[in-house]
Amino acid sequence: MIAADERAFFDRCLELADRAGRLTAPNPRVGAVVVRDGEIVGEGWHRRAGEAHAEAVALDAAGEAARGATLFCSLEPCAHHGRTPPCTDRIIAAGVRRVVCGLVDPDPRVRGAGLEALAAAGIEVDLVEGDDAQRAERVIEDYLVHRREGRAFAVLKVAATLDGRIADRERRSRWITGAAARAHGRRLRERYGAIVVGTGTVLADDPLLLPPSGAGEPGSPFLRCVLDAALRTPSTARLLAEKVAGSPVIVFTAPGADVQRRRLLERAGAEIVSLGPPGGPIPPADVLRELGRRGVLGAIVEGGGRTHGRFVAAGAFDKILWYAHPSILGDPEAVASVRIGRVPLERATRLTIAGLERLEDDLLLTLYPA
Fold first, then answer.
1. Separation between Cα atoms, residue 243 and residue 227, nearest integer Å
2. 86: which residues sit within 8 A by CB, 6+ positions away?
3. Residues identified as active-site
4. I need a labelling partner for 309 at 20 to 30 A (CA). Which of 86, 109, 153, 294 fits?
């Protein structure tokens, strides 16, 4: 438990952790704050895998002021040797008196061992509860799913009119939402390690699917994925024709897909991965497991409507970010945002609204499965 006058320090931990993006993968986003006599004397966050962890950064900033201080951290400190030394060793050596932790790390190499090591060294350990713990979970929800279930966390991203259309009947979608909503949606690619689209999106929009920074980095690639059971993706598509280091293209297809088309795409630079039954469809859950196996913590499923529908129908999503523009097409032939088929009302997918944010003229709804 934490006292009411300490909550601001824990809030700061979460703010710092939330600054990190996909470059921490396969590690979690973590923030840490060192507090002495009611004042922050050091703080930091984990910026990328292989670099100093949040606790070490905060302790470095605090220096000798860390002795006898309280360390607030959004996640349990690690107690094992990886690419960096154990954080618990560093905390003990710094002379920290008390550690306030947001969550127990579900990674099997940690899973309470960090808190046990601190307690064995005589350090007082407190674990937050209730709303504070839930807020800590939201910051690393992708990491938690990856460690607990061995798959990528799936975020469905939808930009639609009020009547749920993502393009008109000619498949024109530029632009349904405004500049602020589009910029917000593109920044998701700096947070998650992969983007997933269907062949229809590639054929209609010919997108590059890159993050705002332009590419992934060595050791932290941004995976651009296409679901294409029949290998209809042209070898001349922009995402293949314009080579981008650090952002490989994976085409998920069905076993038995045309060999000649496969060779053309491979020569163009795509990796072809076969999943599911011959002829398709490609199981969304298998895609998420394969991405998880590759160290991807979270993936953005960007559509189109048929792809969204398959993930929803399979229950293979963890979160929806719905960008709603105050316009109505009213055309039954316009492209629907989620295409499943005939579904009776009692079998509708129920969601919980976790957030509502205005982005200029658009609204962003953050939704989770009910």
1. 20
2. 77, 78, 79, 80, 114, 117
3. 55
4. 294
The DSSP bridge partners found for residue 357 are: 364
Same domain for 292 and 231: yes
The CA-based dihedral angle spanning residues 48, 54, 56, 60, taken in that order and rounded to the nearest 10 degrees: 100
Say what the pLDDT of residue 5 is.
85
- CA-wise closest residue to 59 among 102, 100, 91, 11: 91
Q: Read off the CATH number of the domain in which 38 is found.
A: 3.40.140.10
Both 137 and 204 in one domain: the answer is: no
Tell me, yes or no, whether 14 and 101 share the same domain.
Answer: yes
Residue type, position 213, single letter: S
Among residues 94, 116, 142, the one where a domain terminates is 142
Residue type, 97: R
Would you give the DSSP letter of residue 37?
T
Residue 142 contacts residue 152 (beta carbons within 8 Å):
yes
Instruction: State how many domains the chain has.
Output: 2
**Residues 113, 204: one domain?**
no
Say what the pTM is: 0.94
CA angle 208, 216, 255 (to 5 degrees): 65
φ and ψ of 84, to 5 deg:
-130, 160
Residue 85 to residue 138: CA distance in whole angstroms: 27
| Gyration radius (Cα) of the chain, Å | 23
Residue 1 domain-assigned (yes or no): no
**Mean pLDDT, residues 257-284:** 95
